[in-house]
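User: Could you write out the 3D structure of this protein bound to FE2/S2 (inorganic) cluster? I've included everything you need below.
Assistant: Certainly. Input first, then the structure.
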Amino acid sequence: MSREFTPALKERIEGVLAHYPNKQAGLLPVLRLVQSEKGFISAEDERIVAVLLGLRPIKVREVVTFYTLFARKPLGKFHIQVCSNLSCSLSGGEKILEHLKARLGIRIGQTTPDGKYTLTEVECLGACEQAPCMMVNFDYYGNLDPEKIDRILEGLK
Ligand code: FES
């Protein structure tokens, strides 16, 4: 399947780039646009963005792989990112991850067969005071325990 950018996406990208002194400075918002339109950022998308912004493809790859909010493959409707860094680990983060794996029937990095949930293990989410914590799409959930996770999952639509 072709990953060509639609004229509408190219127009939105040009609109974003108009706010920056040089095209390269707009890399992050451009990648957000691409992900929001296409669901994830493929290697071909990276190459197209590199050409549009006058960057070497490796520069785009470095940014896409550094930020966990960028996906390089299709995600489920709900992307669950569980922190496994120090504060969360010391507060029971591993138990949280094990509970989610068992509850969803998938391993880290997988998506449920119905396409509803993707489970990812990430480094610090910047909410250590709420450890253990996770994000579901762009929402934070902290002070987690298995019962709270069950309630959160049941509330997702
Ligand atoms: S260590 Fe988990 S949010 Fe910082």
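The pocket of FE2/S2 (inorganic) cluster is lined by residues 83, 85-88, 124-128, 131, 133 (CB under 6 Å).
User: Perfect, thank you.
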